[in-house]
Design a protein that fits this description.
Rossmann fold, about 450 residues, single chain, alpha/beta, 3 domains, seven-stranded mixed beta sheet
């Protein structure tokens, strides 16, 4: 039983589930408290030790079913297991080059060892792009998957083209061929299925209040120059009101907790009578903000108003760091700190470091952010991403977004597109949703005000 648990832990690690040696030991020690023959108890024990959160359970269930229900028993000298020897013989016959890691992983998968194939799929999901800059293409992950699919189809053709079996072996050969065919179907399904984690706590905001009936419902992308100036005035008034509300809340938060030491020390002026009550002066925790703003096309029209409000309310946050991107990140924090809103927007739009003619590539943006700015994130950081998640069919690199989620307090995605278009065409919004804490459409002033109120209050 211990050997079985150790091999299952290896399969979990191959699928990028973090399983420590101490957790394997704990799992082995707990076996005496359950009936290992009862699968529900055994599976519950493994899940309790090997999954860290609800988000990991989908991956755990997939690996558990594959390992304990799809994998064949070990080879045995007993005649009952002769079919498994036939399966392994046929798997080696239809296999490719054993020196190639993909062919070797597929051959092992057909013979009952899923770990190499699981590791290969995990490598495909997290592989980096190595395309030259002059001829940029993020299709290496898709081409790698296509290569694996073609090899599965080649093995299927070889299986169908096997020479006819002897009459006495016909039944055994038929069962072995049927089994290998089902294993190839399972390999294909594992390669093409959606492996995003559970995200039951995702907050999806669809409705919004009507703060302003006319200009509040106008789309950011359709505003005229006069309406832009009018909206800036509205935003200025709204920011002042929100600041007053925040400051009143903080003032109230400073009261209610009596500071006994200060009260008694101050009472010495009145012969020890505590006439004046002193309270602890502990300001509420301020959120650290990191924003990633897509500055391509109509997305920028929403992002600039968002940045205006964030920087106008900087004293409500401990810090605000902003990055503009199309296909790579550019730090625009100092531009907004040292200039007024209109001048800052002009400087961002004329920034030579931003290639406005490039194709939007969210995967490359996340990769660059990980390399240069991941140190900005901690458990007090709220990441705000403003963009339509349209990545021109490039590798979305959701694995990096998952790392950003682990390091930060929460990730909020504001999308200026209608929700009906999310996931259509080259949109990766449905992929990124699985790694966000909150997603919102943000197309007009009313939706933006709702978001800012929730953020600061």
């Amino acid at each position: 039983m211990l050997d079985l648990i150790i091999r299952f832990s290896k399969a979990c690690r191959s699928a990028d589930l973090r399983v420590s040696t101490s957790e394997v030991i704990d799992c082995a020690n707990m076996l005496k408290y359950i009936d290992p023959i009862d699968e529900s108890q055994f599976k519950c024990l493994l899940r309790a030790n090997f999954t860290k959160s609800r988000r990991d359970q989908k991956k755990f269930d997939r690996i558990y079913n594959l390992f304990f229900h799809e994998k064949e028993p070990e080879e045995s000298p007993d005649p009952v297991f002769e079919r498994y020897a036939e399966i392994k013989r046929l798997a080696r016959a239809i296999g490719g080059d054993e020196s190639d890691p993909i062919d070797k992983a597929l051959s092992a998968f057909l013979q009952g060892d899923p770990i190499p194939y699981i590791a290969e799929i995990q490598r495909l999901e997290t592989q980096n792009e190595q395309s030259p800059k002059k001829l940029k293409s993020n299709l290496s992950q898709l081409s790698s998957r296509l290569s694996v699919m073609l090899r599965i189809n080649t093995m299927r053709d070889r299986l169908l083209a096997l020479p006819p079996e002897n009459r006495e072996d016909r039944g055994m050969r038929a069962r072995a061929v049927d089994h290998l065919s089902r294993r190839l179907d399972e390999a294909y399904r594992m390669l093409s299925q959606d492996n995003n984690p559970y995200n039951d706590g995702l907050k999806e905001v669809r409705a919004h209040k009507t703060h302003y009936s006319d200009i509040g419902e106008r789309l950011f992308s359709s505003l005229s120059p006069r309406e832009v100036e009018e909206m800036r005035e509205v935003i200025g008034d709204m920011v002042r009101k929100l600041k007053d509300r925040v400051h009143r809340r903080w003032s109230a938060g400073n009261k209610g907790i009596i500071d006994v030491k200060k009260t008694l020390r101050h009472a010495g002026r009145f012969q020890g009578i505590p006439i004046v009550i002193r309270y602890r002066r502990r300001p509420l925790r301020k959120t650290k903000i990191v924003t990633l703003c897509d500055v391509s096309g109509s997305v920028w029209s929403a992002a600039r108003f968002m940045l205006n409000m964030l920087y106008a309310m900087q004293d409500c946050f401990s810090s605000v760091h902003s990055f503009a991107f199309v296909s790579s990140t550019t730090d625009i924090t100092e531009i907004f700190e040292n200039n007024d809103a209109s001048r800052a927007i002009e400087k961002v739009l004329s920034n030579a470091q931003i290639d406005f003619n490039a194709l939007t590539d969210y995967g490359a943006v996340f990769t660059r952010f990980k390399e240069d700015h991941m140190h900005l994130l901690n458990k007090k950081t709220t990441i705000i991403i403003i963009g339509d998640a349209r990545s021109n069919y490039h590798n979305p690199r959701e694995d990096i977004l998952a790392e950003m989620r682990e390091k930060s307090r929460r990730i909020i995605w504001l999308n200026p597109e209608p929700e009906a278009f999310w996931g259509s065409g080259d949109s990766e919004m449905l992929t990124y949703k699985a790694f966000c804490h909150e997603v919102r459409p943000c197309r007009n002033l009313n939706q933006l005000i709702d978001f800012i109120e929730d953020l600061v209050m």
